[in-house]
Design goal:
157 residues, alpha/beta, Rossmann fold, 4-stranded parallel β-sheet, 6 helices, globular
Amino acid sequence: MPIKVLFVCHGNICRSVGAQYIFDQIIEEENMYGLVSCDSAATSTEEIGNPIYPPMRRALEGHRIPIGDHRARQLRRRDYDEYDLIIGMDSENMYYMKYILGDDPDGKVHTLMEYTDSPNELIDDPWYTRDFETAYRLIRKGCMGLMEHLRNDGILY
């Protein structure tokens, strides 16, 4: 059974879906299909049903990240039982993830940057900063760190 990762941000149209597609590419590059899978969700209802935000799409495509047919969805309480890791991008995401999911008895909830050499760093929302390239760079760094964590801690084998 694969390790299931859920990436979460405010609207599920920029950072979390970006992480989903970046991590999908890393899974492919590492030949880890069947061992790891991922999806993404929002803490808010604002963008439900909407596709990836066009500037984020362009940033990902500029780095040759394949884009699927994404539609934003909201995080649900039952996601806690369905996923092995639930990963937010900033402190606001973490607050609302706790509100939606409740307690975290299994230690599944983390920030993406926890898997890097700058674990206290957060990924600002490019919807507001307009800096999609920095968001891409930080998300990729976090996703690479996450994959390394899964491999090095023996979780994948």
